[in-house]
Amino acid sequence: MISFDNVTKRYPNGYDALSQVTFSLDKGEMAFLTGHSGAGKSTLLKLLMLMERPSNGRVLVGDQDLASLANSQIPYHRRRVGVVFQNHQLLFDRSVFDNIVLPLRICGFDPSDAARRARAALDKVGLLSKEKLNPVVLSGGEQQRVGIARAIVHKPQFLLADEPTGNLDPKLSEEVMRLFQQFNQVGTTVLIASHDLGLIARMPHRVITLNQGRLVSDGK
Amino acid sequence: MENNLRRKGAVRVEPNTKRDARVHRGAEHHRLNVADRSRSYLRHHAEVARQSYFSLLAQPLTTFMTLAVLAIALALPGALYTGLKNIQQLGSGWDGDPRVALYLKQSVTEAEAETLSRELLLRDDVAATELITATQGMLEFKSMSGFGDVFNFLDTNPLPAVVMVMPRDLSVASVPLLQTRLQALPQVDDAVVDMAWVQRLAAFVVLAERAVWVLAALFVMAVLLVVGNTIRLSIESRREEIVIAKLVGATDAYVRRPFLYDGVWFGVAGGVFAWFLIQLSLLLLNGPVGQLVSLYDSQFELAGLGLIETILLLLISILLGLCGAWLAVGRHLRQIQPQ
User: Fold this and answer.
1) What is the largest distance, in Å, between two alpha-carbon atoms of chain B?
2) Cα-Cα-Cα-Cα dihedral of A75, A81, A85, A90, to 10°?
3) How many domains does chain A have?
4) How far is A91 from chain B (nearest CA, A)?
5) Which of A44, A164, B118, B168 has the highest CB neighbour count under 10 A?
6) Could you tell me the residue range of the domain that residue A173 belongs to?
7) For residue B109, what are the CA distances in angstroms to A208, B100, B102, B116, B121?
8) Taking CB atoms and an 8 Å limit, are B36 and A128 in contact across chains?
9) How far apart are CA A83 and CA B145, in angstroms?
10) Which residues pair with A207 in a beta bridge?
11) Which residues in chain A have their CB less than 8 angstroms from residue B39's CB?
12) Are A51 and B243 in contact (CB < 8 Å)?
């Protein structure tokens, strides 16, 4: 499903965020990506999102070599991916519902179909009763769940999460992780970048470890 | 209760069979077919157009100020063009039929002048003649010029009789030829082709036309900059939204669309606004122009923007709005990328 083949990312200032990283993630697998800050977790996710391109090596998603995608095809690639951000990236000028329906609007869903799917996603994260609220009045945990609902509303092939429990207390963190497990159980490939080692240890999933841009362990 | 909601939620996820015929959904992902795509494309256009319209109305003061600048920038060349068109029309009234004015000698009597006028009419190179006798000339001068009292101090009428000759061949080459031939007639004191002022007017019109174009080009740039700057501010204020839309797979066209519609609406409203400004300024000019024209005993009437010109004004205005928006969007959207 996801495959990194000898991938190096060197920034223009000469800094190697990733060097010669090779690993692969099977379809339907769930894995954690861990390492200290600066280890290259975010860069790896950015490469998967095509927010950055590798300096060397190949990144494959599905059977697609991301290097073969022109810039104009990036949006269509991103529609296959659901992303949960650490800082939620919600829009505070609209309701929870309108935040979640955004990816569906962009994909061109019929409005009534989109509304049905958005409500289903909200229901999944247990926030159906708050669809009309502005996300600004929600707690951190609830905002994160809105972010998750938005990431899965269009049923992406794989789900990326960048420190999804970064600002949450342990109980909420576990709830969020359980949500990811649920999506994984219905077939979605999930990759979660996190440095919450205690939480990761309690979960029966593969752990990919990076250190200063190098792969230390691919957890297999 | 929660359980109930959950069940309802689960039911909602079930693909609805009616749509399923069109939406082919795999186990993990789904694709929309062409008909769905084009329908959603049109729907997005309509939606964005409506949203853009209401978002402009939501900030009435800002929108009004931008529109006022646009309208003035469009109305100035528009008004100049209209004025020019009127002057051209004024010139063309005479331009087509140059006449040779034959000033007869003082010794020629009224009856002889009458005969001459009829004889000239028989010539091949003359289309028409018109006799203005000395007496007629004096009356006309009295009534039109306001210097009628001058005649009270004179014993005799100093004005000569005049025969206005309309040449059959109006070409630039033949009119002076006819003028020389008529000059040679014994009764004629002087033969004058009254073309000089028409030529001067034509030269002036060419100059003014050039000036209008130069001004129009400057104002076009002003319109582009005003729209561009307004759209740039709008892009800045929606930066976050743009980043998120790009992250969840919005194409450049999708992100661009609302701003282009902003530009179109500015164009539409600015054009309508400019049209009113032009017509209003003509209305204000109409009185004085009427007075001036009546002094010249002319049928001239001030013409406003016609239907075609109105449509043209609107089209130009919309096009400028769109181009201004496009310039701003092209420049600034490229800079906004998810980090």
Assistant:
1) 121
2) 60
3) 1
4) 7
5) A44
6) 26-39+68-217
7) 121, 20, 14, 10, 19
8) no
9) 87
10) A32
11) 110
12) no
And the tokens for B320? Answer: 């400028």
Contact B249 A123 (CB under 8 A): no
Assigned token pair, B290:
């009427």
pLDDT tens per residue, range A146-197: 999 999 999 898 899 998 887 788 888 888 898 899 999 988 999 999 988 8
Over residues B186-228, the pLDDT tens digits come to 888 888 886 666 677 778 888 888 888 898 899 999 999 999 9
Q: Tell me how far apart the terminal alpha carbons of chain B are, to the nearest angstrom.
A: 42
DSSP B273-318: HHHHHHHHHHHHHHHHHHHHHHHTT---------HHHHHHHHHHHH
Partners of residue A150 in chain B, C-beta under 8 Å: 248
* pLDDT higher at A153 or B59: A153
Question: Which of B4, B247, B255, B257 has the highest number of chain A CBs within 10 A, making it the mutation to test binding with A?
Answer: B247
Lowest mean pLDDT among A90-99, A161-170, B88-97: B88-97
Shortest distance, CA B21 to any CA of chain A (angstroms): 14
The answer to the question of residue A187 being in a domain is yes
- Nearest by CB to residue B19, choosing from A93, A113, A124, is A113
Q: In this predicted structure, what is the pLDDT of residue B145? A: 65
ipTM of the complex: 0.90
CATH of the domain at A123: 3.40.50.300
Q: A107 contacts in B (CB within 8 Å)? A: 32, 249
Q: Is residue A166 within 8 Å of A154, Cβ to Cβ?
A: no
Q: What is the pLDDT of residue B23?
A: 43
Q: Sheet with B188-193: list strands edge to edge.
A: B126-132, B162-167, B100-104, B188-193
Are A123 and B12 an interchain contact pair (Cβ–Cβ within 8 Å)? yes
Residue A191 lies in a domain: yes
What tokens does B80 get? 């100049």
| Residue of chain B with shortest Cα separation from A117 | B13
**Domain B99-194, CATH class in plain words:** alpha beta
pLDDT at position A165, please?
A: 85
Task: Report the residue count for chain A.
Answer: 220
Q: Domain segments of chain B: what residues? A: 42-94+199-335, 99-194
Identify whether A118 is part of a domain: yes
Does any domain span residue A58?
no
